[in-house]
Write a structure and sequence with these properties.
By secondary structure, the protein is mostly helical. It has one domain. The chain has two helices and no strands.
């Protein structure tokens, strides 16, 4: 596997950990932490497709 794919895999794992932290914050209760948790999950939803699109374009 190329180093670029390893970067994608590691980035995905880190992003999923980031999303899990956001989900934990949302379930903790209402307030600032829940809003921050929603933002965490939104950032992962935006980041992952861009990460893999960039990796696909680098592989060309």
């Amino acid at each position: 596997m190329t180093p670029t794919l390893w970067i994608g895999i590691i980035g995905t794992i880190v992003a999923l950990a980031f999303a899990a932290n956001g989900l934990r914050a949302v379930r903790a209760g209402p307030g600032h932490a829940a809003n921050a948790g929603r933002l965490h999950m939104m950032m992962v939803i935006v980041f992952l497709p861009l990460l893999w699109l960039t990796i696909a374009l680098i592989q060309l």
